[in-house]
Amino acid sequence: MRHFIAPLLCGIFSMSAIADRPNIVIILCDDLGYGDLGVHGHPHIQTPNIDRLANEGIRFTNFYSTASVCSPSRVGLLTGRSPNRAGVYDWIPEAKQPRPDAREQVHMRKGETTIVQLLKQSGYATCMAGKWHCNAAFNSPEQAQPNDAGFDHWMATQNNAAPSHADPVNYVRNGVPVAKIEGYSCQIAADEVVGWLSTHVEDHEEQPFFIYLPFHEPHEPVASPPELVKQYKGVTWHADQAQYYANVHNVDLAVGKVVQTLRKLGVRDNTLIAFTSDNGPETLNRYRSANRSWGITDHLRGMKLHTHDGGFHVAGIVNWPNGIKPGQVVNTPASALDLLPTACSLANVSIADDRALDGMSLAPFFATGQTSARKKPLVWAYYNSINDARVAMRHGRWKVLARLNGGKFPKRQNLTPTTLAEAKAARLTDFEIYNIAADPGELSNLADRTLVQQAELIAKIRSAYEELVSDSPAWTPVIQQKEAR
Questions:
Q1: Are 317 and 53 spatial neighbours (Cβ–Cβ below 8 Å)?
Q2: How would CATH label the architecture of 378-470?
Q3: pTM across the whole model
Q4: What is the pLDDT of residues 227-236, one digit of tens each?
Q5: Over the stretch 377-413, which tens digit does the pLDDT of each residue have?
Q6: What sign does the CA torsion over 253, 258, 261, 263 have?
Q7: Domain 18-368 is in which class?
Q8: How far apart are CA 353 and CA 134, in angstroms?
Q9: In Å, what is the CA distance from 447 to each residue of 185, 399, 428?
């Protein structure tokens, strides 16, 4: 396991020494499209609270999630590493019975080191409320749970709120099922955070805190307050579209509730809030109950499950009154992978270098909006992508995609020892190269057009994929485990 050094942990930490470090709140939406916010130009959805965070902080216009689907995206955010390194390659179904591809085993293991653990070890109180989706066996001793990831207090569901966002029945609080809760999930999660926060600040005024607020919204099954739905009926094509618009609006109200509580408790100015999404929007009617999935990517190509930018180019907003120059718009590529090193930098937590991190600290942006270009490219290997390119890379202004084995590599939702060996042996082929600075919609493939940088970019994505897949673990199916015995 990786060793981390928290400089302020010398026996018992000094509360006065840590009091000036920022509180940190990460708000994660589920399936929110890049174009679904007012600040990104949506003509109808009202998101004034989120827009205010952007306008009074930093808005990253090239911000990427760590995957184009939910579970790996969350694991990548929490660990600061590509989720492939944790063996989380696709969304995690609930564990029910052994499967040939061992998906019932997939989870973020205790050996992974999270942003939560690092901050907790350095004196932060930690809280989570919302969607977990980092394991198959939820609330079970068989796999690591939110408390194993470092949360002092948590209330969560394994995957989606059920039966919908309205009056969910599947929340678990600190290991104890809560049963039915009246209200809408984003408001329920916000209320849990508000309640914990109010008690914490009252009882531990000088202790900084870390809050992770992963909303279920606007992932299906969408349900929204009727009074909000009514506001959008005159500007939408369909009642289901009004439901979606109201769903995002409800998220904005929940964000406003948390921000107002921080202000009321007198801790707003020294609280960093990061707002983003786990991936791009769901495709309308892709599956039977996706009829309310009216999210948009604006100008981006593709959607959730794609390796084109619509799959993981998402909102990236960071606000911190005490530490961020307001009104900044930054075009440098950034990622949810960067949240862990950023938090550690601000919290004075040193991270040992014996385990690869894929993010960088965003702190240098905060005062001026300028820093050196990221040295390590952003790389994704998604073996179940809807488009044919399984591997993608963002490096500077360039986006590079590649198929595996000429497009003949089978779709994989998980890797076993056999399929991992196949992934390691696979050849990157059929390259696509886009100048995102000039072509953000990925419309003009520059590969094989005598592009000066082509050889360098292809070599870079090949080496990046080789490095990533060599650090990707496999899950052994139960039947193979029994045979090995």
A1: yes
A2: 2-Layer Sandwich (3.30)
A3: 0.95
A4: 999 999 999 9
A5: 999 999 999 999 999 999 999 999 999 999 999 999 9
A6: negative
A7: alpha beta
A8: 25
A9: 45, 11, 14
